[in-house]
Amino acid sequence: MRSVRCTWTRASSCKGRPNMSEFTLIRKNLLQKPLRFLLMYIVIAVAFLLFGLLQAVQGVMTASGSADQGERQIVSNRINFTQPLPYAYVERIAALQGARQATHTSWFGGYFQEPRNFLVSYAVDPQGYLPVYPELRMDARQREAFVRERRGLLVGHATAARFGWTVGQHVTLHSTIFSNRAGGHAWDFVVSAIYTNALEGGDEQAVFLHYDYFNTTRTFGTDKVGSIVVTPRAAGGGAALARAIDAAFANTPDETHTVSEQQFARAFLAQFGNVGLIVTIVVAAAFVTMLLVVGNTMMMNGRARSRDIGIFKSLGFPRAAVARVVVGEALLLAVTGALGGLLLARGIVAVLHASPNFAALAMTPAIWLAGLAAALALGLLTAAVPLRAALNLNVATALGRA
Q1: Once rounded to an integer, what is the mean pLDDT over residues 12-24?
Q2: Which 3-state string (H, E, C) describes 39-65?
Q3: Which of 25, 59, 383, 396 is the least crowded, having the fewest Cβ atoms under 10 Å away?
Q4: Residue 55, class by beta-carbon neighbours within 10 Å (0-12 exposed, 13-18 middle, 19+ buried)?
Q5: Is residue 74 part of a domain?
């Protein structure tokens, strides 16, 4: 960068001091009004803190999972995924030409001791379910025990740590939906295995019980399943298999709707509202507010330093040098504020990540890149008006101001 022969302060002129770079001028300008700089920095940091946290939450809500997990397709009732399907559909789907593996899941709606201890719990067929979900890892002996024990329970590592459960422990789970033929809504289980998830950020909170035990002891919904999970024989054959399944059950009392696992997860979240749209609106509102506040302050700064800019231009500096100072100041403020906010968000996410309930939260590289891109855009936008004013500033008029 070209250096200046004189310092650039509001009340000074050329006094023969040592050369000073444009970056030094930017730093001095920001520190001339430390309180104003601090307030702008806090506004930007808070906005990017909110940005980082909401993007991390949205990443969990819209996570598409791993693409190499066999292109699992989820078959549910065409009316609504909360409506069950006949158990017989499992074998019929498994017999289709394009199907490799088929299994089923049924929502149990369980909790431990009291309703606030809610559990993501499913009734499954262990022998069919575990091969379809190879990312669920456990000790071979525990796996065998879960498959063998009719009242066995497969528990995620996070849930086991949450309640202090150990392998071999007897626990009683209640259902918010189903009742037991023995009376009440409670079922007795033994913790047969504790699993971890091999996928990055994979769920380790779910609880799995035997469908056979559940099906023969519940008072209603016998021989019905919640959904069917099927994998295609050929790579990339998920879409064709989905069409074949829905065609096979067209015009039946229980028509099906088959989608990919990722689409099914998004449909499940959609029942709580459009999460992505909500996050986008909140982030957009925060950024618009921040843009107005910072932009207005930057314009005030530019007007207050018109004499300084006039001195700078009178020393013979070209328009490009003036532009670098004005734009550089805005970019430095925006980028440092964004980094501060994103670092705070990373710290909060790290604390939450340690909790089983927020284990999937993560500040991914994509969030950092998006945040820095937004910071650059913010810096350029807030510099636009002050830059135009600085470039069009008349030196004689600027120097004539008190």
Answers
A1: 44
A2: HHHHHHHHHHHHHHHHHHHHHHHCCCC
A3: 396
A4: buried
A5: no
Q: Which one-letter amino acid corresponds to residue 289?
A: T
Q: Are strands 73-77 and 121-124 parallel, antiparallel or unpaired?
A: unpaired
Is residue 16, in this structure, part of any structural domain at all?
no
Q: What is the mean pLDDT of the chain?
A: 81
Claim to verify: residue 250 and residue 288 sit in the same structural domain: no
CA 177 to chain centre: 30
Conformational region of residue 239, where left means phi above 0, alpha means psi within -120 to 50, and beta covers everything else: alpha
Number of domains the chain is built from? 2
Q: What H or E segment, with its residue span, contains residue 74?
A: strand 73-77
Write out the residue range of the structural domain in which residue 242 sits. 79-254
Convert the pLDDT of each residue in 170-185 to its tens digit: 999 999 999 999 999 9
Q: Of the given ranges (279-288, 296-305, 374-383), which has the lowest mean pLDDT?
A: 296-305
What is the average pLDDT across 90-112?
Answer: 94
Spatial separation of the C-alpha atoms in residues 281 and 276, rounded to whole Å: 9
Residue 267 falls inside a structural domain: no
Q: Match 């996410």 to its residue by tokens.
A: 349
Give the model's confidence band at 133: pLDDT under 50 very low, under 70 low, under 90 confident, else very high. Answer: very high
Residue 230 and residue 181 share a domain: yes
Question: What gap in Å lies between CA 355 and CA 357, rounded to an integer?
Answer: 5
Residue 129 domain flag = yes
CA 308 to chain centroid, in Å, comes to 46
Q: How many CA atoms lie within 13 A of 362 on its CB side?
A: 12
